Amino acid sequence: MQFEIGQKDFLLNSKPFKIISGAVHYFRIVPEYWYKTLYNLKAMGCNTVETYVAWNLHQPQPDQFNFSKQADLPQFLQIAQELGLYVILRPTPYICAEWEFGGLPAWLLNIPNIRLRQNDPVFLAQVDRYFSQLLPRVALYQFTQGGNILMMQIENEYGSFGNDKDYLRAIKALMQKYGVNVPLFTSDGAWQNALEAGALIDDDILPTGNFGSRSNQNLDELQRYFDNHNKSYPLMCMEFWDGWFNRWKEPVITRDAQDLVDCTKELLDRASINFYMFQGGTNFGFWNGCSARLDTDLPQVTSYDYDAPVREWGEPSEKYYLLQKLLATYPDSSEIKEPILPEITAYPAISMEKEVSLFSTLDSISQRHDSPFTQTMETLGHYYGYMLYRAKPVAHSGEIKLRIYQCRDRVQVFNDHQKVATQYQHEIGNDIMLQTPNGQFQLDLLVENMGRVNYGGKLLAPTQHKGIGAGAILDLHFHTGWEQYAIDFEKLDQIDFSGKQDPQTPSFYQFTLTIDDEPKDTFIDTSKLGKGVVIVNGENLGRYWNEGPTCYLYLPAPLLHKGKNQIIVFETEGVRPTELTFSDKPIYKQLNTKNL
């Protein structure tokens, strides 16, 4: 068995082979559904699955590696192999993918003078350490070893970030150092500047293009790049965007199904394809990324539905069935079959059982750090979610001005447990007037990291440090003396619900969902909640926000079990949920749909 990159075609056992692939991110789908998703991918007609590899998932701390549960990449590869699917693996340090910090671990920000994604010995030493754990685990699945991995990627859309060819060669060398011997490729936007900056064509590394429309025009540009370098390669769109991602406060973006099919045919008649995405999945926990903007960055929503052929919850869409008909006309497609459909139910509403203010249970679910000045979340080793900063200053007047400096991303200000203000990104630093006694008072600043940017030059910006950097000014002086509480959402079983209830402050609310039969998928209706996260049986489903456009959290059946299921809502906006409701379909806020 042999796979090669020929001059005009990919060659499988010396015969021309058209790659028909779909993107599935194992880390966005519960492991129990990997088989179903990959089966449906093949049933649509695809012969290959493509996936990124998220560094921050696999190395959450500098001295800790994770390859279990949703991080069990070898198991995902094994299921694909058993189903007869080939794999395109993208184990690059940076992935974009609308994923937190583009897949880069936030602890890298603690390393002095590090230059991310550049030929920097400090950065490359960290990549080396990561690859030493990751690549030997996947090398066994290479096609050259009797496995199913056809190709691997060196870097991702590097031409949209840098043009450091020595860096690209260093990543290539590290991959080969740890046993990678399948063909390598790069992927970039299909225009000349991006390709010239990001590809390694002079090193005989396959360049591929990323685009979602104007197939012939983009393929012409890719071919022109080959011709300019007197090279001949098969054409491939490594990311054919069949939908798009969504951000808070913006309309849901969709793409017409027939338009997608027409552009797909135009592409397949000349090239190989990877549908991005086949099934998008979910940004569970705090893993959503953020779009960089000049002033206010735009965090992405929890759903990574992407308007893909298979929806976030595993339901084939109109796109799926239209693509089935098209793909069936190409000889290298897989056999068309009926897909496996999800089972979704709306469980009866449940009443709230317990509640407690965050302030009353703070010590039991947080790690406290004391210091004279405020410290960032990264400095304290708490990279995601929330940090509460507490001070007990003394005021010598009935009113005092507060200003917060270098704070990201969103801060809520409490004066003796009374909410005074909420500031978000560009508002932070504006004056906040505190009504104070002539004496000591308690100042609490709850800061939420809403997601680091996943694309562009802001990867290197100071704004990717979360929490409070410079500090807080009272009157005209920086206040000294802070208690900092890193809220640990893996310790919610230690919440003390006997503490004080105060719905006007950020609070925890506990519910119990009792299931008599085998659990089914469902949606938690968040339309009447404010902002926060929901934890089911210890698993963080992700963020919700009544700003929309999504007003639900997808709850896969494998996170539930027969009997009693504990659900905890962390609500920060003063909304007291007396009951929790479920739905058998996703719920959206009407912000108008935007078409691609």
How is this structure best described in words?
The radius of gyration is 25 Å and the shape is globular. Helix 4 packs parallel to helix 5 (165-177) and helix 8 packs parallel to helix 9. Helix 5 (165-177) links the parallel strand 7 (149-156) and strand 8 (184-189). Helices cover 18% and strands 30% of the residues. The chain is α/β, with parallel strands linked by helices.
Produce the secondary structure layout.
Layout: E1 3-5, E2 10-12, E3 15-17, E4 20-24, H1 34-44, E5 48-52, H2 55-58, H3 73-82, E6 86-90, H4 121-139, E7 149-156, H5 165-177, E8 184-189, H6 192-198, E9 206-211, H7 215-228, E10 236-241, E11 253-254, H8 257-268, E12 272-279, E13 290-291, E14 298-299, H9 318-327, E15 350-351, E16 354-357, H10 358-365, E17 366-371, E18 385-391, E19 399-408, E20 410-415, E21 418-424, E22 432-435, E23 443-449, E24 467-474, E25 477-478, E26 482-487, E27 507-515, E28 522-525, E29 531-536, E30 539-545, E31 552-555, E32 563-571, E33 579-583, E34 594-595
Parallel strand pairs: 4-5, 4-12, 5-6, 6-7, 7-8, 8-9, 9-10, 10-12, 11-34
Antiparallel strand pairs: 1-2, 2-3, 13-14, 15-33, 16-27, 17-26, 18-23, 18-26, 19-22, 19-24, 20-21, 20-23, 24-25, 27-32, 28-31, 28-33, 29-30, 29-32
Keywords: Glycosidase, Hydrolase
Protein name: Beta-galactosidase
Active site: 157 (proton donor), 239 (nucleophile)
